[in-house]
TrEMBL record:
Organism: Streptomyces nogalater
Residues making up the signal peptide according to the UniProt record: 1-20
PANTHER family: PERIPLASMIC BINDING COMPONENT OF ABC TRANSPORTER, PERIPLASMIC OLIGOPEPTIDE-BINDING PROTEIN-RELATED
Protein name: ABC transporter substrate-binding protein
InterPro entries: Peptide/Ni-bd (IPR030678), SBP_5 (IPR039424), SBP_5_dom (IPR000914)
Swiss-Prot/TrEMBL keywords: Signal, Transport
Subcellular location: Cell envelope
Pfam family, one: SBP_bac_5
Family recorded in the similarity comment: Belongs to the bacterial solute-binding protein 5 family.
Amino acid sequence: MNRKTLVLPAVAGLLTPVLAACGGSDSGSTSGDAIVVGTTDRFTATKEAPAPLDPAYAYDVGTWNILRQSVQTLMAQPKGEGEPVPDAAESCSFTDSGSERYACKLREGLKFASGDPVTAEDVKYSIERVLRIDSSSGVSALLNTIDTIETQGDRDVVFHLKTADATFPYKLSTPVAGIVNPKDYQKDKLREGFEIDGSGPYTFKADVEDGAITAATFTKNPSYKGSVTLNNDEVELRSFADADAMGEAIDKGDIDVMTRTMSPAQIQKLDAGDDDKAELVDMPGLEIRYLAFNTDAASVKDKAVRQAMAQVINRGELVSKVYGTQAEPLYSLVPATITGHSNSFFNRYGNPSADKAKTLLAKAGVTTPVKLTLHYTTDHYGSATKQEFEILQKQLNDSGLFDATIQGHPWSTFRPAEQKGEYDVYGMGWFPDFPDADNFLAPFLDKDNFLGSPYNNSTVQRSLIPQSRREADRLGATKSLTAIQDAVAEDVPVLPLWQGKQYVAARDDITGTAYALNSSSTLQLWELGRGVSG
Protein backbone atom coordinates (compact mmCIF):
# COMPACT_ATOMS: atom_id res chain seq x y z
CA MET A 1 0.00 0.00 0.00
CA ASN A 2 1.07 3.58 -0.47
CA ARG A 3 2.66 5.52 2.31
CA LYS A 4 0.89 8.38 4.03
CA THR A 5 3.04 11.39 4.82
CA LEU A 6 1.69 13.76 7.45
CA VAL A 7 2.45 17.44 7.73
CA LEU A 8 0.87 18.65 10.93
CA PRO A 9 -0.05 22.30 11.46
CA ALA A 10 2.06 24.06 14.06
CA VAL A 11 -0.47 26.72 15.02
CA ALA A 12 -1.36 26.53 18.70
CA GLY A 13 -5.01 25.77 19.27
CA LEU A 14 -5.84 24.35 15.85
CA LEU A 15 -5.44 20.80 17.09
CA THR A 16 -6.76 21.21 20.60
CA PRO A 17 -8.82 18.10 21.38
CA VAL A 18 -12.49 18.42 22.24
CA LEU A 19 -12.93 18.31 26.00
CA ALA A 20 -14.57 15.13 27.26
CA ALA A 21 -16.92 15.79 30.13
CA CYS A 22 -17.23 12.19 31.22
CA GLY A 23 -14.22 10.35 29.90
CA GLY A 24 -14.52 10.76 26.15
CA SER A 25 -16.46 9.10 23.39
CA ASP A 26 -18.59 6.04 24.03
CA SER A 27 -18.15 4.85 20.46
CA GLY A 28 -15.10 2.68 21.16
CA SER A 29 -14.06 -0.12 18.84
CA THR A 30 -16.89 -1.12 16.57
CA SER A 31 -16.01 -4.79 16.78
CA GLY A 32 -15.50 -4.86 20.52
CA ASP A 33 -12.05 -6.40 20.01
CA ALA A 34 -8.96 -4.95 21.64
CA ILE A 35 -6.64 -3.18 19.23
CA VAL A 36 -3.26 -4.88 19.47
CA VAL A 37 -0.14 -2.72 19.15
CA GLY A 38 3.37 -4.09 18.76
CA THR A 39 6.60 -2.57 20.07
CA THR A 40 10.20 -3.65 20.44
CA ASP A 41 10.50 -1.70 23.69
CA ARG A 42 11.49 -3.91 26.60
CA PHE A 43 10.07 -3.26 30.06
CA THR A 44 12.11 -4.98 32.76
CA ALA A 45 12.48 -4.76 36.51
CA THR A 46 16.01 -5.45 37.72
CA LYS A 47 18.00 -5.17 40.91
CA GLU A 48 19.46 -1.90 39.62
CA ALA A 49 16.08 -0.60 38.42
CA PRO A 50 13.27 -2.33 40.34
CA ALA A 51 10.63 0.38 39.76
CA PRO A 52 10.56 1.01 35.99
CA LEU A 53 6.99 2.37 35.92
CA ASP A 54 7.09 4.72 38.90
CA PRO A 55 6.70 8.35 37.66
CA ALA A 56 9.46 9.30 40.09
CA TYR A 57 11.89 6.98 38.26
CA ALA A 58 10.71 6.31 34.67
CA TYR A 59 12.64 8.33 32.11
CA ASP A 60 12.66 6.73 28.68
CA VAL A 61 10.22 6.90 25.81
CA GLY A 62 8.91 3.35 26.33
CA THR A 63 7.96 3.63 29.98
CA TRP A 64 6.65 7.16 29.50
CA ASN A 65 4.37 5.90 26.74
CA ILE A 66 2.87 3.48 29.25
CA LEU A 67 2.47 6.16 31.90
CA ARG A 68 0.91 8.68 29.52
CA GLN A 69 -2.04 6.34 29.01
CA SER A 70 -2.66 5.68 32.68
CA VAL A 71 -1.33 8.49 34.90
CA GLN A 72 -2.87 11.90 34.41
CA THR A 73 -1.04 15.23 34.41
CA LEU A 74 -2.31 18.76 34.95
CA MET A 75 -1.43 19.65 31.37
CA ALA A 76 -1.19 17.48 28.24
CA GLN A 77 0.54 17.82 24.91
CA PRO A 78 -1.97 18.09 22.06
CA LYS A 79 -2.35 15.34 19.52
CA GLY A 80 -0.56 17.34 16.86
CA GLU A 81 1.65 20.27 17.75
CA GLY A 82 1.16 23.44 19.75
CA GLU A 83 1.03 24.61 23.34
CA PRO A 84 0.05 22.21 26.15
CA VAL A 85 -3.65 22.06 26.99
CA PRO A 86 -5.31 21.44 30.38
CA ASP A 87 -5.98 17.77 31.19
CA ALA A 88 -6.47 17.05 34.90
CA ALA A 89 -6.64 20.81 35.23
CA GLU A 90 -9.59 22.88 34.18
CA SER A 91 -7.24 25.79 33.61
CA CYS A 92 -3.60 26.75 34.21
CA SER A 93 -1.66 29.97 33.67
CA PHE A 94 1.19 32.15 34.86
CA THR A 95 -0.21 34.75 37.22
CA ASP A 96 2.79 37.10 37.11
CA SER A 97 4.74 38.84 34.36
CA GLY A 98 8.00 37.09 35.26
CA SER A 99 6.95 33.45 34.67
CA GLU A 100 7.64 32.55 38.30
CA ARG A 101 4.14 31.84 39.64
CA TYR A 102 1.97 29.23 37.94
CA ALA A 103 -1.57 28.43 39.10
CA CYS A 104 -3.88 25.55 38.16
CA LYS A 105 -7.46 24.69 39.01
CA LEU A 106 -8.42 20.99 38.89
CA ARG A 107 -11.48 19.77 37.04
CA GLU A 108 -14.48 19.33 39.29
CA GLY A 109 -15.22 15.74 40.34
CA LEU A 110 -11.86 14.35 39.23
CA LYS A 111 -11.28 10.77 40.44
CA PHE A 112 -8.61 8.10 40.41
CA ALA A 113 -9.65 4.88 38.69
CA SER A 114 -10.11 3.40 42.18
CA GLY A 115 -12.90 5.93 42.84
CA ASP A 116 -10.91 8.08 45.28
CA PRO A 117 -11.19 11.82 44.60
CA VAL A 118 -8.19 13.63 43.12
CA THR A 119 -7.39 16.74 45.15
CA ALA A 120 -4.93 19.59 45.05
CA GLU A 121 -3.10 17.93 47.94
CA ASP A 122 -2.61 14.82 45.78
CA VAL A 123 -0.97 16.97 43.10
CA LYS A 124 1.30 18.56 45.69
CA TYR A 125 2.12 15.17 47.20
CA SER A 126 2.93 13.62 43.82
CA ILE A 127 5.35 16.30 42.67
CA GLU A 128 7.01 16.79 46.04
CA ARG A 129 7.45 13.02 46.16
CA VAL A 130 9.43 13.09 42.89
CA LEU A 131 11.68 15.83 44.22
CA ARG A 132 12.13 14.10 47.58
CA ILE A 133 13.05 10.71 46.08
CA ASP A 134 15.35 12.35 43.49
CA SER A 135 15.92 9.00 41.76
CA SER A 136 19.06 7.99 39.91
CA SER A 137 17.31 8.25 36.53
CA GLY A 138 17.63 12.04 36.72
CA VAL A 139 13.98 12.61 35.85
CA SER A 140 13.41 14.89 38.86
CA ALA A 141 15.65 17.50 37.20
CA LEU A 142 12.70 18.35 34.95
CA LEU A 143 11.02 19.87 38.01
CA ASN A 144 14.10 21.54 39.50
CA THR A 145 12.80 25.08 39.01
CA ILE A 146 10.04 24.47 41.59
CA ASP A 147 10.59 26.22 44.91
CA THR A 148 7.36 25.57 46.79
CA ILE A 149 3.86 24.26 46.04
CA GLU A 150 0.81 25.81 47.64
CA THR A 151 -2.73 24.43 47.73
CA GLN A 152 -5.90 26.43 48.17
CA GLY A 153 -8.87 24.21 48.91
CA ASP A 154 -9.39 20.95 47.06
CA ARG A 155 -8.98 22.24 43.52
CA ASP A 156 -6.36 25.00 43.40
CA VAL A 157 -2.59 24.46 43.15
CA VAL A 158 0.02 27.22 42.92
CA PHE A 159 3.64 26.59 41.93
CA HIS A 160 6.20 29.12 43.10
CA LEU A 161 9.34 28.82 40.98
CA LYS A 162 12.94 29.55 41.93
CA THR A 163 13.58 31.27 38.62
CA ALA A 164 11.59 32.23 35.57
CA ASP A 165 10.67 29.19 33.49
CA ALA A 166 8.51 29.74 30.42
CA THR A 167 8.76 26.01 29.66
CA PHE A 168 7.06 25.02 32.93
CA PRO A 169 3.63 24.27 31.36
CA TYR A 170 5.35 21.72 29.11
CA LYS A 171 7.02 20.10 32.10
CA LEU A 172 3.66 19.69 33.82
CA SER A 173 2.54 17.71 30.74
CA THR A 174 5.20 15.02 31.25
CA PRO A 175 4.75 11.81 33.28
CA VAL A 176 7.17 12.93 35.99
CA ALA A 177 4.39 15.34 37.00
CA GLY A 178 1.83 12.53 36.98
CA ILE A 179 -0.74 12.59 39.77
CA VAL A 180 -0.61 9.49 41.96
CA ASN A 181 -2.70 8.33 44.91
CA PRO A 182 -0.82 8.58 48.24
CA LYS A 183 -2.50 5.29 49.20
CA ASP A 184 -0.55 3.51 46.45
CA TYR A 185 2.75 5.43 46.36
CA GLN A 186 4.87 5.99 49.47
CA LYS A 187 6.24 9.51 49.82
CA ASP A 188 9.89 8.53 50.14
CA LYS A 189 10.13 5.17 48.37
CA LEU A 190 9.76 4.02 44.77
CA ARG A 191 6.92 1.64 43.91
CA GLU A 192 8.62 -1.51 42.66
CA GLY A 193 7.24 -3.80 39.99
CA PHE A 194 4.69 -3.19 37.24
CA GLU A 195 1.58 -1.80 38.92
CA ILE A 196 0.19 1.62 38.02
CA ASP A 197 -2.74 3.46 39.58
CA GLY A 198 -3.84 6.83 38.26
CA SER A 199 -6.67 8.89 36.80
CA GLY A 200 -5.65 8.72 33.14
CA PRO A 201 -7.68 7.57 30.12
CA TYR A 202 -6.92 3.89 30.75
CA THR A 203 -6.34 1.47 33.58
CA PHE A 204 -3.28 -0.73 33.20
CA LYS A 205 -2.56 -4.42 33.72
CA ALA A 206 0.72 -6.12 32.84
CA ASP A 207 1.49 -9.72 31.92
CA VAL A 208 4.94 -10.41 33.34
CA GLU A 209 7.37 -13.23 32.71
CA ASP A 210 10.91 -13.49 34.11
CA GLY A 211 10.86 -9.91 35.36
CA ALA A 212 9.72 -8.42 32.05
CA ILE A 213 6.41 -7.28 30.58
CA THR A 214 5.34 -9.47 27.68
CA ALA A 215 2.02 -7.71 27.13
CA ALA A 216 0.07 -4.88 28.73
CA THR A 217 -3.67 -4.26 28.60
CA PHE A 218 -5.08 -0.73 28.64
CA THR A 219 -8.79 -0.66 29.46
CA LYS A 220 -10.96 2.44 29.17
CA ASN A 221 -11.23 4.20 32.53
CA PRO A 222 -14.88 5.14 33.08
CA SER A 223 -13.88 7.71 35.72
CA TYR A 224 -11.56 9.66 33.39
CA LYS A 225 -12.18 13.36 32.92
CA GLY A 226 -9.71 15.13 30.71
CA SER A 227 -8.81 16.56 27.34
CA VAL A 228 -8.84 13.46 25.13
CA THR A 229 -11.60 11.45 23.51
CA LEU A 230 -11.15 7.69 23.49
CA ASN A 231 -11.85 5.95 20.18
CA ASN A 232 -11.56 2.44 21.63
CA ASP A 233 -12.40 0.52 24.77
CA GLU A 234 -9.24 -1.56 25.06
CA VAL A 235 -5.72 -1.70 23.64
CA GLU A 236 -3.15 -4.43 24.14
CA LEU A 237 0.54 -3.56 23.86
CA ARG A 238 2.80 -6.51 23.04
CA SER A 239 6.56 -6.47 23.39
CA PHE A 240 8.61 -8.25 20.71
CA ALA A 241 12.23 -9.36 20.79
CA ASP A 242 13.01 -7.61 17.52
CA ALA A 243 11.51 -5.84 14.52
CA ASP A 244 11.38 -9.00 12.40
CA ALA A 245 9.22 -10.79 14.95
CA MET A 246 6.94 -7.76 15.15
CA GLY A 247 6.68 -7.63 11.35
CA GLU A 248 5.73 -11.31 11.16
CA ALA A 249 2.99 -10.68 13.74
CA ILE A 250 1.35 -7.91 11.72
CA ASP A 251 1.51 -9.99 8.54
CA LYS A 252 -0.25 -12.86 10.32
CA GLY A 253 -2.87 -10.55 11.79
CA ASP A 254 -1.72 -11.19 15.36
CA ILE A 255 -1.26 -7.45 15.87
CA ASP A 256 -2.97 -4.47 14.27
CA VAL A 257 -0.30 -1.76 14.58
CA MET A 258 3.51 -1.57 14.61
CA THR A 259 5.17 1.30 16.45
CA ARG A 260 8.77 1.78 17.46
CA THR A 261 11.10 0.45 16.42
CA MET A 262 10.74 -0.86 12.89
CA SER A 263 13.92 -1.70 11.02
CA PRO A 264 15.11 0.44 8.09
CA ALA A 265 14.48 -2.54 5.78
CA GLN A 266 10.87 -2.88 6.97
CA ILE A 267 10.24 0.83 6.46
CA GLN A 268 11.73 0.70 2.94
CA LYS A 269 9.53 -2.29 2.05
CA LEU A 270 6.38 -0.62 3.34
CA ASP A 271 7.35 2.68 1.69
CA ALA A 272 7.69 0.93 -1.66
CA GLY A 273 4.21 -0.55 -1.34
CA ASP A 274 5.54 -4.11 -1.35
CA ASP A 275 3.49 -5.19 1.66
CA ASP A 276 -0.26 -5.52 1.13
CA LYS A 277 -0.89 -6.35 4.79
CA ALA A 278 0.03 -2.99 6.33
CA GLU A 279 0.11 0.70 5.51
CA LEU A 280 2.97 2.99 6.52
CA VAL A 281 2.42 6.43 8.00
CA ASP A 282 5.45 8.67 8.41
CA MET A 283 5.50 11.84 10.44
CA PRO A 284 8.02 14.55 11.25
CA GLY A 285 10.10 13.38 14.19
CA LEU A 286 12.26 14.94 16.86
CA GLU A 287 14.24 11.81 17.77
CA ILE A 288 17.99 12.39 17.86
CA ARG A 289 20.98 10.08 18.29
CA TYR A 290 24.31 11.08 19.76
CA LEU A 291 27.50 9.89 21.39
CA ALA A 292 27.96 10.80 25.04
CA PHE A 293 31.19 10.95 27.01
CA ASN A 294 32.28 10.41 30.58
CA THR A 295 34.43 13.53 30.51
CA ASP A 296 36.34 12.38 33.61
CA ALA A 297 37.49 9.15 31.91
CA ALA A 298 41.16 9.06 31.00
CA SER A 299 40.64 8.17 27.34
CA VAL A 300 38.39 11.16 26.57
CA LYS A 301 39.16 13.60 29.39
CA ASP A 302 41.16 15.81 27.03
CA LYS A 303 38.57 17.67 24.99
CA ALA A 304 40.91 17.51 21.99
CA VAL A 305 40.08 13.80 21.72
CA ARG A 306 36.36 14.56 21.66
CA GLN A 307 36.91 17.39 19.20
CA ALA A 308 38.93 15.10 16.95
CA MET A 309 36.07 12.60 16.93
CA ALA A 310 33.71 15.41 15.95
CA GLN A 311 36.12 16.33 13.16
CA VAL A 312 36.44 12.77 11.80
CA ILE A 313 32.89 11.36 11.95
CA ASN A 314 31.04 11.57 8.66
CA ARG A 315 27.36 11.92 9.49
CA GLY A 316 26.25 11.92 5.85
CA GLU A 317 27.90 8.58 5.18
CA LEU A 318 26.53 7.13 8.42
CA VAL A 319 22.96 8.13 7.62
CA SER A 320 23.04 7.08 3.98
CA LYS A 321 24.46 3.62 4.69
CA VAL A 322 22.19 2.77 7.62
CA TYR A 323 19.00 4.83 7.48
CA GLY A 324 18.74 6.36 4.00
CA THR A 325 15.88 8.85 3.75
CA GLN A 326 14.64 7.89 7.23
CA ALA A 327 17.11 10.25 8.93
CA GLU A 328 19.30 13.24 8.26
CA PRO A 329 22.65 14.45 9.65
CA LEU A 330 22.42 16.57 12.79
CA TYR A 331 24.95 19.23 13.77
CA SER A 332 23.46 20.26 17.10
CA LEU A 333 21.59 18.67 19.98
CA VAL A 334 18.60 20.76 18.89
CA PRO A 335 16.79 19.33 15.83
CA ALA A 336 16.63 21.47 12.72
CA THR A 337 12.85 21.93 13.00
CA ILE A 338 12.92 23.39 16.52
CA THR A 339 13.01 27.15 17.16
CA GLY A 340 16.51 28.09 18.31
CA HIS A 341 18.38 25.42 16.30
CA SER A 342 21.92 26.28 15.21
CA ASN A 343 24.32 24.18 13.11
CA SER A 344 27.05 24.74 15.69
CA PHE A 345 29.06 21.58 14.96
CA PHE A 346 29.16 22.20 11.22
CA ASN A 347 30.03 25.85 11.79
CA ARG A 348 32.99 24.80 13.92
CA TYR A 349 34.25 21.64 12.19
CA GLY A 350 32.94 21.82 8.63
CA ASN A 351 33.35 18.70 6.52
CA PRO A 352 35.02 15.58 7.98
CA SER A 353 38.82 15.84 7.87
CA ALA A 354 41.41 13.45 9.33
CA ASP A 355 44.12 16.07 8.77
CA LYS A 356 42.33 18.68 10.85
CA ALA A 357 41.69 16.08 13.56
CA LYS A 358 45.37 15.13 13.54
CA THR A 359 46.30 18.78 14.08
CA LEU A 360 43.89 19.08 17.02
CA LEU A 361 45.42 16.04 18.72
CA ALA A 362 49.00 17.09 17.99
CA LYS A 363 48.50 20.57 19.48
CA ALA A 364 47.10 18.96 22.64
CA GLY A 365 50.01 16.51 22.84
CA VAL A 366 47.74 13.47 22.56
CA THR A 367 49.47 10.25 21.50
CA THR A 368 47.80 8.40 18.66
CA PRO A 369 46.13 6.09 17.98
CA VAL A 370 43.73 6.82 20.84
CA LYS A 371 42.24 3.59 22.21
CA LEU A 372 38.48 3.73 22.68
CA THR A 373 35.56 1.37 23.28
CA LEU A 374 32.22 2.60 21.95
CA HIS A 375 29.31 1.08 23.87
CA TYR A 376 25.80 0.74 22.50
CA THR A 377 22.53 -0.88 23.54
CA THR A 378 21.39 -3.91 21.57
CA ASP A 379 17.64 -3.81 22.25
CA HIS A 380 16.44 -0.27 22.81
CA TYR A 381 16.92 1.86 19.70
CA GLY A 382 16.32 -0.71 16.99
CA SER A 383 18.16 -3.42 15.12
CA ALA A 384 20.21 -0.97 13.02
CA THR A 385 22.16 0.30 16.02
CA LYS A 386 24.89 -2.33 15.66
CA GLN A 387 25.45 -1.44 12.01
CA GLU A 388 25.57 2.23 12.96
CA PHE A 389 28.35 1.59 15.47
CA GLU A 390 30.27 -0.60 13.05
CA ILE A 391 30.39 2.35 10.66
CA LEU A 392 31.42 4.76 13.43
CA GLN A 393 34.20 2.36 14.40
CA LYS A 394 35.41 2.12 10.80
CA GLN A 395 35.38 5.90 10.31
CA LEU A 396 37.44 6.47 13.45
CA ASN A 397 39.92 3.70 12.71
CA ASP A 398 40.31 4.61 9.03
CA SER A 399 41.56 8.04 10.12
CA GLY A 400 44.60 6.36 11.65
CA LEU A 401 44.06 8.44 14.79
CA PHE A 402 41.93 6.00 16.78
CA ASP A 403 41.96 2.34 17.75
CA ALA A 404 38.25 1.88 18.40
CA THR A 405 36.32 -1.21 19.35
CA ILE A 406 32.58 -1.55 19.91
CA GLN A 407 30.59 -3.45 22.51
CA GLY A 408 26.83 -4.02 22.76
CA HIS A 409 24.73 -4.46 25.91
CA PRO A 410 21.03 -5.02 26.70
CA TRP A 411 19.29 -1.84 27.89
CA SER A 412 18.65 -3.33 31.33
CA THR A 413 22.40 -3.31 32.04
CA PHE A 414 23.47 -0.57 29.63
CA ARG A 415 21.50 2.27 31.24
CA PRO A 416 22.59 1.62 34.88
CA ALA A 417 26.23 1.19 33.80
CA GLU A 418 26.14 4.43 31.82
CA GLN A 419 24.68 6.30 34.78
CA LYS A 420 27.46 4.98 37.02
CA GLY A 421 30.11 6.27 34.64
CA GLU A 422 31.33 2.82 33.60
CA TYR A 423 31.50 3.72 29.88
CA ASP A 424 33.93 6.29 28.46
CA VAL A 425 31.98 6.64 25.19
CA TYR A 426 28.45 5.40 24.58
CA GLY A 427 25.56 5.85 22.17
CA MET A 428 22.23 7.24 23.26
CA GLY A 429 18.97 8.42 21.73
CA TRP A 430 16.69 11.19 22.87
CA PHE A 431 12.97 11.56 22.37
CA PRO A 432 11.98 14.97 23.73
CA ASP A 433 9.96 15.36 26.88
CA PHE A 434 8.39 18.35 25.13
CA PRO A 435 9.07 20.10 21.80
CA ASP A 436 11.24 23.01 22.91
CA ALA A 437 14.98 23.65 22.47
CA ASP A 438 15.43 23.77 26.25
CA ASN A 439 14.58 20.07 26.41
CA PHE A 440 17.37 19.18 24.01
CA LEU A 441 19.95 21.10 26.05
CA ALA A 442 19.21 21.30 29.79
CA PRO A 443 18.79 17.52 30.32
CA PHE A 444 22.37 16.99 29.08
CA LEU A 445 24.07 20.09 30.44
CA ASP A 446 22.31 21.24 33.60
CA LYS A 447 23.21 20.23 37.11
CA ASP A 448 22.03 16.68 37.92
CA ASN A 449 21.64 15.93 34.19
CA PHE A 450 19.98 12.66 33.25
CA LEU A 451 23.18 11.16 31.82
CA GLY A 452 24.96 11.55 35.15
CA SER A 453 27.67 13.34 33.17
CA PRO A 454 30.44 15.04 35.17
CA TYR A 455 30.66 17.79 32.53
CA ASN A 456 30.12 21.19 34.14
CA ASN A 457 29.93 24.52 32.33
CA SER A 458 29.03 27.16 34.88
CA THR A 459 28.20 29.79 32.25
CA VAL A 460 25.72 27.45 30.59
CA GLN A 461 24.17 26.32 33.89
CA ARG A 462 24.05 29.60 35.80
CA SER A 463 23.53 32.11 33.03
CA LEU A 464 22.53 30.83 29.60
CA ILE A 465 19.91 28.22 30.54
CA PRO A 466 18.14 30.59 32.99
CA GLN A 467 18.27 33.38 30.38
CA SER A 468 16.64 31.18 27.76
CA ARG A 469 13.84 30.20 30.14
CA ARG A 470 12.87 33.79 30.81
CA GLU A 471 11.64 34.23 27.25
CA ALA A 472 7.97 33.39 26.88
CA ASP A 473 8.38 34.09 23.16
CA ARG A 474 10.83 31.33 22.26
CA LEU A 475 12.22 33.34 19.33
CA GLY A 476 13.50 35.75 21.96
CA ALA A 477 15.58 32.95 23.48
CA THR A 478 17.54 32.31 20.27
CA LYS A 479 20.65 34.24 21.30
CA SER A 480 21.17 32.33 24.56
CA LEU A 481 20.19 29.02 22.95
CA THR A 482 22.78 29.53 20.19
CA ALA A 483 25.45 30.33 22.77
CA ILE A 484 24.67 27.04 24.56
CA GLN A 485 24.94 25.07 21.33
CA ASP A 486 28.25 26.77 20.49
CA ALA A 487 29.58 25.78 23.93
CA VAL A 488 28.62 22.16 23.24
CA ALA A 489 30.47 22.25 19.91
CA GLU A 490 33.55 23.64 21.66
CA ASP A 491 33.67 21.23 24.62
CA VAL A 492 31.92 18.20 23.01
CA PRO A 493 30.47 16.59 26.16
CA VAL A 494 28.05 15.00 23.68
CA LEU A 495 28.36 14.55 19.91
CA PRO A 496 25.10 14.75 17.88
CA LEU A 497 24.83 12.33 14.95
CA TRP A 498 21.41 12.33 13.31
CA GLN A 499 17.75 13.28 13.49
CA GLY A 500 15.08 10.77 12.49
CA LYS A 501 11.52 10.56 11.28
CA GLN A 502 8.91 8.49 13.08
CA TYR A 503 6.74 5.77 11.66
CA VAL A 504 3.61 3.75 12.37
CA ALA A 505 2.39 0.82 10.31
CA ALA A 506 -1.16 -0.54 10.60
CA ARG A 507 -3.54 -2.99 8.98
CA ASP A 508 -6.12 -1.27 6.81
CA ASP A 509 -9.07 -1.55 9.20
CA ILE A 510 -7.34 0.58 11.83
CA THR A 511 -8.20 4.27 12.01
CA GLY A 512 -6.50 7.15 13.81
CA THR A 513 -2.92 6.22 12.89
CA ALA A 514 -2.28 9.80 11.77
CA TYR A 515 -2.24 10.82 15.43
CA ALA A 516 -0.96 7.63 17.03
CA LEU A 517 2.23 9.57 17.75
CA ASN A 518 2.62 13.28 18.35
CA SER A 519 5.69 15.37 17.56
CA SER A 520 7.37 14.30 20.82
CA SER A 521 6.93 10.60 19.95
CA THR A 522 4.18 10.33 22.54
CA LEU A 523 2.09 7.21 21.93
CA GLN A 524 -1.58 8.20 21.92
CA LEU A 525 -3.45 4.91 22.04
CA TRP A 526 -6.79 6.64 22.48
CA GLU A 527 -6.61 7.89 18.87
CA LEU A 528 -6.77 4.35 17.45
CA GLY A 529 -10.07 2.86 16.34
CA ARG A 530 -11.30 -0.06 14.30
CA GLY A 531 -13.08 0.74 11.07
CA VAL A 532 -14.03 -1.28 8.02
CA SER A 533 -11.34 -3.18 6.11
CA GLY A 534 -10.83 -2.02 2.54
